[in-house]
Specification:
It is a single chain. Helix content is 31%, strand content 31%. Strands 2-1-3-4-5 form a five-stranded parallel β-sheet. Strand 13 and strand 14 form a beta hairpin. It is elongated and about 65 Å long.
């Protein structure tokens, strides 16, 4: 499923952009593409903050009363949303601001079919090589995390710590069983005792006492955990999993 949000305070422009996107979608009937429209950026941001709506691509007008598209984009990034943003505007003066929020494209109105389709095709082509993600709830917000960035998850009392490849961590108020249920669909994630779920892709070496991760962190293995983890590790890589 791929969600596209269109946000423009001018109904005429919103109708035009939606019509173009729906026309483009008909060329991709093999994809589950859903299109949502918003005349108010605050309504879009509220839905995203609630965690029930996470657009993959946002077509966002810049000049809107109350809150500009640039400000809305900054809020999205602060919330942790990494969806693609394509700005639609009548002026080029905010082009540098667009790069500041990692915008995928900056289109000057009027936006025609050829230009918009070209941008959407490029985004979808890049998506073909997309990295699998999983969405966790943390501190009242949704966090979209790339599977490849998850090094391990560690039990911390009533909450768990999800350790990432960049050295940061996310605190999750979920049980370890719930986290493992989400990750076990992918064969690289294995449970180690009651306190850890590890990503085999990030293990540099194993010994009877610890697993050395490629981030420099060491996980001390509970009694009886080494042999099954060693077998899972070699089975995964010998089978071509990595």
């Amino acid at each position: 499923m791929y969600r596209i949000a269109i946000c423009d305070d001018e109904k005429k422009e919103l109708d035009k952009t939606e019509s173009l996107v729906l026309s483009w979608r008909r060329r991709h009937e093999d994809e589950d593409i859903f299109v949502d429209r918003f005349e108010d950026p605050e309504k879009m941001l509220t839905r995203i903050k609630e965690g029930e709506y996470i657009p993959d691509l946002i077509l966002l007008d810049i000049y809107m009363p109350g809150k500009s598209g640039i400000k809305a984009a900054r809020e999205l990034r602060q919330m942790g949303n990494r969806g693609k943003i394509v700005f639609l505007t009548t002026s080029k003066e905010h082009a540098l601001d667009a790069y500041g929020v990692d915008a995928a494209q900056y289109l000057v109105k009027p936006v025609g079919e050829k230009k918009l389709f070209s941008v959407l095709d490029k985004i979808m082509k890049n998506r073909e090589n997309r990295i699998a993600h999983v969405i966790f709830r943390s501190d009242g917000r949704s966090c979209k995390v790339a599977l490849k960035d998850i090094v391990y998850c560690e039990a911390q009392g009533k909450s768990q710590r999800l350790h990432l490849a960049d050295g940061s961590f996310i605190r999750l108020r979920m049980t370890m069983a719930e986290i493992y249920e989400m990750l076990s669909e992918w064969q690289e994630f294995k449970k180690v005792g009651a306190s850890y779920v590890v990503n085999l892709e990030h293990i540099d070496s194993l010994s009877g006492q610890e697993a050395c991760m490629d981030t420099g962190k060491n996980i001390y293995l509970p009694r009886g955990a080494y042999q099954p983890l060693r077998e899972q590790y070699f089975s995964y890589f010998c089978a071509g999993g990595g």
